[in-house]
Amino acid sequence: MTESLQTDVLVIGSGIGGLYFAIHMADHASVTIITKKESSTSNTNWAQGGIAATIDSSDRTELHIEDTLGAGAGLCNRDMVSIMVEEGPAHIKRLIELGVQFTTSDHDRLHLGKEGGHSRSRIVHAQDCTGREVEKALLDRVNSHPNITLLEHHFAIELLTEHHLGIKTNDITCYGAYVLDSMQRKPKKILARITMVASGGLGHVYKHTTNPDIATGDGVAMAYRAGAEIANMEFIQFHPTSLYHPRAKSFLISEAVRGFGGILKLKNGQEFMHKYDKRQNLAPRDIVARAIDSEIKKSGDECVFLDVTHIDSAKTREHFPNIYETCLQYGIDMTKEMIPVVPAAHYSCGGIRTDARGRTTLNRLYACGETSCTGVHGANRLASNSLLEALVFAWRAHTDILGQLPLLQNDTIFPDWDDSGTVNPEEWILVSHNKKEAREVMNDYVGIVRSDLRLQRAKRRIDFLKDETEAYYKKTKITTQILELRNIIKVASLIIEGAIKRRESRGLHYTTDYPERDEKHFLIDTVQRSF
Question: Does residue 277 contact residue 327 with C-beta atoms inside 8 Å?
């Protein structure tokens, strides 16, 4: 018999969006947070750069809005961008009240960094470990709140909807989720009046990524299967500068290093960014990533280099202690030698489509953070807007829910998780092989530069892997490995379908068959829904 739990609010994910939402909801309702690994394992924890906020007297919200719209290549929702930028500074204050210790300069004023695409210095940060500092403060508050239950090693399998009752409807409501307790190897039902999906990114759909191992697109895949609208999946941001080293697991070299004065160079020391953009090393990420990709293909080298050796070494160590120490672990002293870097999958601008209140197209289902698509990023995310987006729309979701929560009931009886007829997994080689192949297909054919030929080839191979994996899934008892593989393949197919639909080049989606923007036909979101 499947164990059944009840809660007012179910939060899937423990990054900045999920934790910030949970903390504020817990003052009014019981909250259960599930996370598939440890609570601190998230994209937030790995975020180095910071949070963009218009708080300096020399800055204006209009400038931040225009910078965001410029990076988004015409596809941003201006109203959503305005909401994010205008409401952002208040959430920096709230984080400080929650115990986040940001880096300060003279007179205890917040130190503001500058990153690519920003016209002003507006990046609030905690040295080069902003995500870790924010995550720590939020987790401390979560762990001390009596109304919050945090369940680690719990993997969301599927959202509970009418379809699990055999009811076919287009007006779908979410009532919680089926969840795998991976330590006990037991499925559970968690019934909730409201469900928030804040499960983070999808970097591990690709071979090279800056994301932690958990980032397998679970929330997007699960919401799509439940019938929610998914938008703009073709816009995958590749971080231009991940550390190139066989043991580094694509460690991220923050864009703040370029904002600090770092210069991209070839192996022979020659600069090259002036050939691609007038902003040179401070150009937006998509331009920098394509420039590096182009130079690597022309030279035949495996990487390019980021040079900060011309900057005072003490200042470099002070501003980037984590990056400095990590590079040293791999035998690279960044104050004396250039850092080898390559682009790696970093951030998804698409995701579960939401409105300004965090509502998805399913009743009682909300989404925030990287797993959502609010429209603020358009075709390319401006640096350090991601944590800001998560904060603003997590808060907006919480305020929207407060007014309706007392009116919602959840006494629907759902069946236990049915694994009758399944067997314990035996063919582990199939799971590991299919995961490896799917990630290589995405890396080779659906990366920084695309074409019709590459996309069609990727579609055929991913479709084959999907059929094979689904057949295996249906006959095998669930494990985290099988669930992740299934989600990776589903998200890969969504990215490919979105890229095929967008017959132009815009922002992060660049195709050699349609190298120009097409404002007449494609100044719209690409939306996908399972039924």
Answer: no
